[in-house]
Design brief:
Elements lengths: L4 H13 L2 H8 L3 H15 L4 E4 L2 E4 L1 H30 L4 E5 L3 H13 L5 E5 L3 H9 L5 E7 L11 E9 L1 E5 L20 E3 L6 H11 L7 E3 L2 H9 L3 E5 L9 E5 L6 E8 L9 H17 L34 E4 L20
Parallel strand pairs: 3-4, 3-5, 8-9
Antiparallel strand pairs: 1-2, 5-12, 6-12, 7-10, 7-11, 8-13, 10-13
Helix pairs in contact: 1-2, 1-4, 2-3, 5-9
Amino acid sequence: MDLELRHLKAIRAIADAGSLTRAATALGLAQPALSAQLKRIERALGGTLFERGREGVRTTALGDLVLDRARVVLPAVCELQEEAVRFAREGAGGYRLGGTHGPLLGGLVDRLARTEPGSPVTTYTSWSEREIARGVAAGRLDFALVGVCGESAPPEAGRLAWTEIARDPVYVMLAADHPLATRTELDLAELAVEAWTDVPGDGCFGDCFAAACVRAGFTPACVYETDTASCVHLVQVGRAVGLCRATFPVTPGIVTRPLAGAPLVWRHLLGWHPEGRAAGRAATVLHHTGAAHAEALVQSAGRMPGAGVTPGAMPMPTSTPVPVPVSTEAGLVTVAVPVPGADPEPCPRPSPYPGA
């Protein structure tokens, strides 16, 4: 058996408590389990570590040797862990970015690489805004580029500093030959008969979308949940329509149109740890993120000819709510549209759990 840190902790606890029973209580173990563990440790070390007596236990000469080393090793390991966390947050340069899928993350990477060619830039993507925020809070990532709908709060709101980059109305993605594609604006109620397709996510967009549909007088009958490429394909072939962000890029076979009254709003947010290693560079990243958003709007699918910079679209995710106002790079909601003359395919009821 190899000696492990937990074994040294057990030896230290027994010596400090002077009793196997009290040490077991301190360690959260049953006394027989601690006794059996001590026997295995003593066999591995080749001798007895404690002498048992009526008044408890006391260390043997071998026990004194092991205990002295344990009192050095255990604090050193604890210090090593603390230093590693500090280094992860404050040590090396470069940018470690986390984000949900969308053009803003790519635009930010491009601008950082262009303006700071000597600084390494790494990215981590996930459908889960909470996972990304936890990565920043734990020091594994420097910045989180995510999004929330409406006035919902960002994840880890109490631990991270969040700044809103922009807020955009949510658009509808339609096949280029959809009967409503020639319109410049649509009422959500006009899509009541459609089926929807979306990407996973753990924000509140699903709840906000459902509430908007109820206000419009209907309940979505069908939602296909799948990856972004599949959602886009369903829209392109006329099998689906979708909700998307204003930054959705020009895509063959798809048009995006605003919803009348902007019943859904998407806020892009940038978050960082106020005591993290990159906190001093937050202003730089905020500047580049805002510029990336502006560039994405100019190139978006929703920019109407002669209408200036009009939000385009990006598939939105359905999911559960979070509290506070901020914005992020998130998800995708698309809606399946029956093809004239074709038999509709079976559509599963939407799952209450993202990705389920």
